[in-house]
Amino acid sequence: MTAELRTDATPLDPAALRADFPILDQQVFGHPLVYLDSAATSQKPQAVIEAMDAYYRQDNANVHRGIYQLSERATAAYEGARAKVAALIGAPDPRTVIWTRNATESINLVAYTWGRKNIHRGDAIILTEMEHHANLVPWQILTQEQDGDLEFIPIDDDGVLRLDVFEVLLRLRPKLVAFTHVSNTLGTINPVKEMTRMAHEAGALVLIDGAQAVPHVPVDVADIGCDFYVFSGHKALGPTGSGVLWGRRELLEAMPPFMGGGDMIREVHLRRSEWNDIPWKFEAGTPDISAQIGLGVAADYLRNLGMDRVREHERELVAYALETLAREIPGIELYGPPADIRGGVVPFNVPGVHPHDVAQVLDRFGVAIRAGHHCTMPLHERLDLAATARASFGVYTTKADIDALAAALREVQRLFA
Ligand SMILES: Cc1ncc(COP(=O)(O)O)c(C=O)c1O
């Protein structure tokens, strides 16, 4: 791992980076593994694996409790990881970084605490047609319980949000606008800063689902100006079980707790309790200590690479994939916007072959992709598609991976001809 923050503009060298990801060095059905499912979960660099291993070998103890060396070291690493994540996403204060298990839990936390306090009969929440179920279902549950309304910003046929319709929807004076930063299915990078400004001008708060953004594009929550920002550690080179809710301090302080129990209290009496300060107010019970420590290391790893370089690498890969697949695979249907406003996600269909069959044949050639609705059923309905195949990229993806995908897709076509 590079020891210093990269400020130069040298392009990322994914082939060299692959040495940091031990899992990539293996064969599947006699072919080198080609991992094209990073939007589902990313692979983990050696540094993250080693940090978790070191925690269990040397520092394992509960945090915030013991007055002894191990616990102090565990607590320092656990809390230190907050500062690393804060630095990655431009959060001015590490105490506004709340640990959760994943993006899904972060969104539910806001829906259950802020939502139940602030959403009442007739209050509107605006979402978009491209949301992952994680940024849809919690708001359905909330508005059904509280008798609120949901409205949706539509997309155009390229999968770009219709901001002209958003403008009109804002006349409803919604309480909250919640949208994804980058679509997990189409890859669309939404204009989050502009959308936040528009929502704020209409008096709404803004929650951004950054699950597909933090590992792929530069994120600066202070610059975006949003109120809540969430992501999952496991998609950002970190371990499963690590997740983040970032929120504006005043909002987090005003929100009631999510779950009750140890660590989230300052004082407990038989009939009442007082809550701890943020972030611990939202972190009841023993957390996934090693996972959050691992996420801190992943955050440093990404920052050392330089997120501008990561973004440029993936923009180039998407452009290469769109061009290569269109040229090499006759009749292939490619969905989503151009590479300039797209993260590392390429959804497609091979006419006459169900995406599950495509994925299964690709697996025989060592190529791992995802097939199905990718937890965006309403988006697939809008596009009039039952399912899609999806190749998605990470810092370690190379053009050779895309060539291998194209070669395996030619075999799919040969097999189903
Ligand atoms: C855009 C987006 N939001 C939320 C999620 C949910 O992530 P998790 O299952 O880690 O909570 C995903 C996962 O695919 C996603 O792509």
Q: Can you lay out the helices and strands and say which pair or pack?
A:
Elements: H1 14-17, E1 27-28, E2 31-32, E3 34-35, H2 46-59, H3 69-89, E4 97-100, H4 103-118, E5 124-128, H5 137-146, E6 149-153, H6 163-169, E7 176-180, H7 192-201, E8 205-209, H8 221-224, E9 228-232, E10 243-247, H9 249-254, E11 265-268, E12 273-275, H10 289-305, H11 307-328, E13 333-334, E14 345-349, H12 355-364, E15 367-368, E16 370-372, H13 377-382, E17 388-392, H14 399-415
Parallel strand pairs: 3-15, 5-6, 5-7, 7-8, 8-9
Antiparallel strand pairs: 1-2, 4-10, 9-10, 11-12, 13-14, 14-17, 16-17
Helix pairs in contact: 2-10, 3-10, 4-5, 11-14
The structure holds pyridoxal-5'-phosphate (PLP).
Residues 102-104, 132, 134-135, 180, 184, 209, 211-212, 232, 234, 375 line the site of pyridoxal-5'-phosphate.
Helical residues, percent: 25-40%
Largest sheet: 7 strands, mixed
The CATH homologous superfamily of the largest domain is termed Type I PLP-dependent aspartate aminotransferase-like (Major domain)
Could you name the ranges where pLDDT drops below 50 across 5 or more consecutive residues? 1-5
Number of domains: 2
Shape: globular
Number of helical segments with 4 or more residues: 14
Cα(first) to Cα(last) distance is 46 Å
Strand arrangement within the widest β-sheet reads: 4-10-9-8-7-5-6
Examine the coordinates and then state which fold CATH places here, giving the name of the CATH topology of the largest domain: Aspartate Aminotransferase, domain 2
User: Which ions, cofactors or small ligands are bound in this entry?
Assistant: pyridoxal-5'-phosphate
Radius of gyration: 22 Å
Q: Indicate the CATH class of the largest domain.
A: Alpha Beta
The count of strands amounts to 17
* Structural class by sheet pairing and helices: alpha/beta
Strand content: 15-25%
CATH architectural group of the largest domain: 3-Layer(aba) Sandwich
Mean pLDDT: 96
